Amino acid sequence: MGVEELFHLSSNQSIYEHEVAIGKALDTIPLAELYEQAESALSSGKEGGFEDHLVMALLKWFKQWFKWVNSPECDRCGGETNPRGAEPPRPEEAKYGARAVEIYHCEKCRTLTRFPRYNDPVRLLETRCGRCGEWANAFTLLLKALDLDVRYVWNAEDHVWNEVYSPFHERWIHVDSCEEAYDRPLIYADGWGKKMSYVIGFSVTGARDVTRRYVRRPDASLPRNRFNEAELEQVLQGITIDLRQRMTAEMREIYSERDEVEEAEMMSYQEEQVVEVPRQSGAPDWVAQRGEDGRS
Ligand SMILES: [Zn+2]
């Protein structure tokens, strides 16, 4: 992972802007139902604005609609499977952005099942399954389809999630679709006991190091030795300036004001710890193996 990967993650955000992808997402989301839930939460006086309630409704729906995969079911008999390594993708899998295909063996009927790790979010709306990568990828598209300002958040310790900009709260809000979590940025450090080095948010309007939102205590942090700090800052700033070049001066002003507010927000985090719950998604042993069971 070098700075090239940062540029790649940034440029990848434009895939969620494609009209066909947005259209497919809008066909998938039960819009009327979610709008109704958001309206009713709003009128019942629950905290937040319409967009906040809409994202919470989307999270709730998505959590039961999209499936978590540890080992996939056997293609042939539906039985349990065990991992048997990985293979390069076939053309029909590579077509949907699969860079690797995990292979699973069924003990019962002794056949192999392929689990292509698709990167095409539209394809994921059809397969409706995966691990955090697939969840965050598909969820980014759905949030985009609702016309929200969305970040795809990359963590160096193998997790990804989202952030949405809340017009009501006037700040970026943590959103993790695997955990149905809204505005619980300390879920990783305090709930999972996860230690992190870098957390970077990418959107079509910029790239930002948001580690301080998620790592607020020294004992929840890992050494930051992947990038030179000055170079990282320069790269993220460069990406942001570049992305905002096509904006009107007025829009650019709005986004720089948001940046300033966000900087003040992140500066304000002192050492704090809230009570969080352990990770909900994934099999217990897999979660423990990743050091995310809140016990480390
Ligand atoms: Zn089988």
Automatic annotation (TrEMBL):
- State the Pfam families in the record: Transglut_core
Q: Where do the record's region annotations for Disordered lie?
A: 274-296
Arranged from A to Z, the UniProt key words for this protein are: Metal-binding, Zinc
Question: What Gene Ontology cellular-component terms does the record carry?
Answer: cytosol; nucleus
Q: What GO biological process terms does the UniProt entry carry, in alphabetical order? A: glycoprotein catabolic process
Which family, according to the similarity comment?
Answer: Belongs to the transglutaminase-like superfamily. PNGase family.
Per its record, how is this protein called by name?
A: Peptide:N-glycanase 1
Q: Which organism is it from?
A: Wickerhamiella sorbophila
